[in-house]
Amino acid sequence: MYLLICVVNNTASVNEIVGGFVRIGVTGATVIDSHGTVEIAAAQVPVFAGFRHLVQSNRQPNRTVFSVIKDDETLDQAMAVVEEVTGNLEESASGIMFAIPVTRVKGLAPKMEETAADAS
Q1: C-alpha span between 25 and 47 (Å, rounded)
Q2: Counting CB atoms within 10 angstroms of each CB, which of 21, 82, 92, 93 has the fewest?
Q3: Three-state DSSP state, 120
C-alpha cells in the first residue's frame, strides 16, 4: 500500500482528479487547502515582504490530495490520472506528486483492509 500525495496548483482540477480516482477504483481521498513557502515567507518574514505583491494577486491556495492506494498498478493509474488532468508535472509548475509506502492502516473501508491483511 502507498500514500499518494499530490499538491495541485490549479484548484479547479481537483474535482476532475478525484473523479478519475473513483473511475479506477480509488474511492477515498482527503483534500485540504495548502500554501507554499513563498506565500508564507512573504506574509511573515520581513526579508521576503517585498515579494508579497507577487503572491497576493488573488491567488487561491493550492490543494493537497491524500489517498491510500492499495497496490503498484493502482498507484500507476492514479498518478497517470493526476498528470492527465494537470499536464506533465516534470515540465510545468502545476504541482508535485509523490508516494510513500504504508506499512499499517486502520480505519479504511473493509474491502481495502482485507486486501492489506491478505498481503501480510
Answers
A1: 47
A2: 93
A3: coil
Residues 17/79, Cβ–Cβ less than 8 Å: no
Structural domain spans, the chain: 2-119
| pLDDT of 41 higher than 70 | no
Query: Mean pLDDT across the stretch 3-18?
Result: 92
In terms of Cβ atoms closer than 10 Å to its own Cβ (0-12, 13-18, 19+), residue 77 is middle
Residue 4 C-alpha cell reads as: 499518494
Mean pLDDT taken over the chain: 80
C-alpha cell at position 57: 494577486
3 or 112, which is more confident:
3
- Please check whether residue 31 is in contact with residue 18, taking contact to mean a CB–CB distance below 8 angstroms: yes
Fold for 2-119, please state it: Alpha-Beta Plaits (3.30.70)
